[in-house]
Design a protein that fits this description.
One of its GO terms (cellular component) is nucleus. This is BRCT domain-containing protein. Among the domains are: about 100 residues, Rossmann fold (3-Layer(aba) Sandwich); about 120 residues, 3-Layer(aba) Sandwich (Rossmann fold), CATH 3.40.50. The relative contact order is 0.07. A 4-stranded parallel sheet has the order 2-1-3-4. The protein is about 30% helix and about 10% strand. By secondary structure, the chain is α/β, with parallel strands linked by helices.
């Protein structure tokens, strides 16, 4: 009875609503099923007319049902406020007996979460609200309960009750950390879940970044890598698409532009294929339904574009011939005509790429050239930009040394799509998610329709003054091709900090306009009103960045420090002139395509004084040396001189040969760098090198450490021998917990632990969201555990402060240890600092914290 009543209640659901079903991508069975469902709910079906691929009586339609946004009337439908929904919307509406929100079923590719249904596990309520709101805003769906419809379960640990339920029920979903959603939001694309998947997410696995997996060729760039096809077109074989699908040329008249420079033979081949597909070739612009050309200029291009006809290049035409089905030329970068002079400002750039192979490499090379920049197969010091799929490559390391901008491909795609250079101050262009190959999301950016119209074919161009607007050879006033204010990009997403060892969930997104659901790429008066503000955004962002440079151990923020741990000495990063070096790299990508080597800068560049520069001999980390304080220019020059001598100054404490300091210090950088077994020298080493223009023997400038060693009860000489044995694995297989407000900051101890191969987890007293396990003890394994003799294996450590406010955290930590059959040990920060400096695990009862001791001290 219940099923019958539900059916009866839904029978009139679509009454007074009209629908058209777009057939591409739908099987015949699915098409008929959707038609019957709409008719059964008393909806009106307006047939779709296939010959020209247009929808009759578009103004009378309420809903267009389509699996894709790639059909001719899509943008016109949006302008008319007509909903475009996937067939699943029909099913969901009938099941719920009410029309569902069409946004969450939109095929718009900008709504990159539109196939995602999430359910949140036991995560903080504020984080849960932020994630659910973000998923809804990006076209996804949320549900409070587990079901077969859930695609992603967001949790901090597989011990979460809902994770266990999903496992027991064998639900076909993915269990991921909240960090996955965080990174999707930061990049503006749906990235691979693999590095974030429970129970053992790769982003939390090791201190070292590890190998980045190769990316599969993105479907968005298949047959769309070049605007100039190299082979003649071949008529396609019969296709198996739905019988009512739009045919590429059926009833269409195609005009081939003069700037294609086709010979008569090739024109004849193309005309024959178009005719065989039911179309024809015309020489009259007014008659044409499609216009094919190379460049975004000329009277024919402007006229057909203003008339909203299909305008594409030869690559697009060949794509239609190959696949036989219509597609929007603006959907793929290399299917739309190029700007003849490139993107304004790109002509001064020299761009190379790293870690892209095969079709992806060809696509990016052609996109760089189409933008007007110079593409270089060889990466040199005079390159201005390196486009990388991830930062785990030697080219990225060289770019960091030389001060070359390292960006992901989104910067290039967005600049090309919007016909103007996008600011590098926008974080999404310089962000690289851990263990992720961004080649997976290559080609998902579409040409910006409004920006292209404003730049190249405005309906009402401003009148040009004769003296300032010379006429181009094609008869188009230069002013009509000038750069104009263009719509701002999609609203900036919430900026949240993610750390590999931190299980802190994302913060709530903040929208400046107060709206929760903000459509990416939306158009209208609001966007145009914001254009002036957007133009100033790079300057504002740069100003804020400069204001935040001083202070703190990470992220430029100021953090509370204690006398025994500080890291206030931050060296300012030099510009591209700050480093001069020679690199020689033969970087081979995963498909065995060899990238050209990274070489020295050409001799014609005046900044380089030598034809061949000295390779790096030593990487030096400097701590607590104030020689360059408030003098960035001197720092830049001195570092350049030292680099020419083979000494590279770095802040990367995970890869260091020499540590230089005025005396032994207890800073994060100094202590973490000891895991590298570096040579320890005093600042006199730098004094000598800069004065004599050569590197002195390190043994003549050793760091004086006698008093420090006596005070801390160890010897650096012995510690460095042990560090060499440990190979960054002193704390391998250890999970050490740390409270949030510990003196010196959680990040300080996390970095020290990770530098020694361990894992550091933020402790907030939530026993259900974290796990712990005993360490395997094998004294015979001299490669790993030789300096862990005093490790009992079953002791669980929590680094904290002697503060009564932490008592609750301690109690819950003991519960966690008991849950995993381990011995809880709550320790002062001194324990970790002593272990890391001496490079062996040892114990002193004075380091242990207890409520009794803290209470007793408070009474004194």
């Amino acid at each position: 009875m219940e099923d019958t009543s539900m059916l009866e209640a839904s029978q009139g659901l679509f009454e007074e609503l009209s629908f058209t079903i777009y057939p591409n991508g739908l099987s015949e069975d699915r098409l008929r099923q959707t038609e019957h469902a709409i008719a059964g709910a008393r909806g009106t079906l307006i047939p779709f007319t296939a010959p020209k691929g247009r929808i009759d009586k578009l103004e009378e339609i309420n809903y267009i049902v389509s699996e894709t946004a790639d059909f001719p009337d899509y943008y016109r439908a949006l302008d008319l406020m007509i909903h475009v929904v996937k067939p699943a919307w029909v099913d969901a509406s009938l099941k719920a007996m009410k029309t569902k929100n069409p946004r969450t079923y939109s095929p718009d590719p900008a709504l990159f979460m539109n196939d995602v249904v999430i359910c949140c596990g036991n995560i903080p309520s504020g984080d849960k609200e932020a994630i659910e709101g973000g998923v809804l805003a990006m076209g996804g769906q949320i549900t409070p309960t587990l079901s077969k419809q859930v695609t992603h379960l967001i949790a901090l640990d597989q011990n979460d009750a809902r994770c266990q339920l999903a496992i027991s029920k064998r639900l076909p979903l993915v269990m991921v950390l909240p960090h996955w959603f965080d990174d999707c939001l930061r990049v503006g694309r749906r990235i691979s879940e693999r590095p974030y998947t429970l129970p053992d997410p790769e982003i939390l696995a090791d201190a070292e970044p590890g190998a980045i997996p190769p990316a599969r060729t993105s479907q968005q760039i298949r047959d769309a890598t070049t605007p100039d096809p190299h082979n003649d077109p071949v008529a396609p074989p019969p296709h198996l698409e739905a019988p009512r699908a739009i045919k590429a040329f059926d009833g269409k008249r195609v005009k081939l532009g003069e700037d294609l420079n086709l010979n008569s033979k090739l024109r004849g081949i193309i005309a024959g294929i178009i005719k065989a597909g039911g179309g024809s070739v015309t020489t009259k612009t007014d008659e044409a339904d499609m216009y094919i050309c190379n460049y975004r200029d000329g009277a024919d291009y402007i006229k057909t574009s203003q008339a909203r006809k299909d305008v594409g290049n030869l690559g697009w035409l060949y794509y239609l011939i190959t696949h036989g089905v219509w597609t929007n030329p603006m959907q793929r970068m290399m299917h739309y005509p190029r700007p003849r002079d490139g993107i304004p400002g790109f002509d001064k750039y020299k761009v190379s790429i790293s870690s892209y192979t095969g079709e992806a490499r060809v696509y990016l090379e052609n996109l760089v050239k189409a933008s007007g920049a110079e593409f270089t197969k060889t990466f040199k010091q005079d390159n201005t930009h390196l486009i990388a799929a991830h930062k785990n490559s030697e080219k990225c390391e060289a770019a960091a040394e030389w001060g070359v901008n390292i960006v992901n491909h989104l910067w290039l795609e967005d600049s090309y799509a919007k016909s103007r250079e996008m600011p590098l101050t926008e974080s999404r262009y310089t962000y690289f998610p851990a263990r992720t190959n961004l080649g997976e999301v290559l080609g998902q950016t579409e040409i910006d329709r409004d920006a292209t119209e404003k730049m190249y074919f405005p309906k009402f161009p401003k009148p040009a003054k004769a003296s300032k607007a010379p006429t181009q050879p094609n008869g188009v006033p230069a002013s009509s091709l000038a750069t104009r204010a263009i719509e701002p990009p999609a609203a900036e997403k919430a900026k949240r900090t993610k750390s590999a060892g931190n299980l802190q969930t994302p913060l709530p997104p903040r929208h400046t306009d107060g709206k929760e659901n903000q459509t990416p790429g939306s158009r209208g008066a609001k966007d145009r009103a914001l254009s002036k503000l957007h133009d100033a955004a790079p300057d504002i962002a740069q100003f804020e960045k400069e204001m935040k440079r001083r202070g703190g151990v990470i992220h430029g923020g100021r953090r509370r420090t204690a006398d025994h741990v500080d890291d206030s000495s931050k060296t300012a990063k030099g510009g591209r002139d700050s480093v001069a070096s020679k690199r020689s790299i033969d970087e081979v990508d995963e498909d065995e395509e060899t990238e050209d080597e990274v070489t020295e800068i050409p001799a014609k560049n005046k900044r380089v004084k030598k034809d061949k520069l000295t390779p790096i001999k030593f990487r030096m980390l400097i701590s607590k040396d104030a020689r360059w304080a408030d003098n960035a220019e001197k720092e830049s020059k001195d570092k350049a001189r030292l680099r020419e001598l083979g000494l590279f100054i770095t802040d990367d404490f995970k890869k260091v040969d020499i540590v230089c300091a005025p005396q032994p210090v207890r800073t994060k950088k100094f202590i973490a760098a000891l895991a590298c077994a570096p040579m320890l020298v005093s600042t006199s080493y730098l004094d000598y090198a800069l004065k004599n223009n050569k590197l002195p023997p390190t043994e003549k400038h050793l760091l004086e450490a006698r008093d420090f060693e006596e005070a801390n009860n160890f010897h650096f000489s012995e510690a460095l021998v042990r560090a060499k044995q440990n190979k960054h694995r002193l704390l391998k297989d250890w999970t050490i917990f740390c409270t949030e407000k510990v003196a010196g900051g959680f990040e300080t101890y996390r970095d020290i632990i990770e530098a020694n191969g361990g894992k550091c987890t933020l402790w907030k007293g939530r026993t259900t969201t974290v796990t712990a396990s005993k360490r395997k003890r094998n004294p015979a394994d001299q490669d790993v555990s030789q300096n862990q003799i005093e490790d009992e294996g079953d002791v669980l450590y929590l680094i904290s402060d002697a503060d009564k406010k932490e008592f609750t955290n301690w109690s819950k930590f003991r519960d966690l240890a008991a849950k995993h059959d381990m011995v809880p040990r709550i320790v002062k920060t001194e324990w970790l600092l002593s272990v890391a400096m001496a490079q062996y695990v040892h114990w002193n009862p004075e380091w242990e914290l207890s409520e009794e001791a803290v209470t007793a001290d408070a009474k004194k």
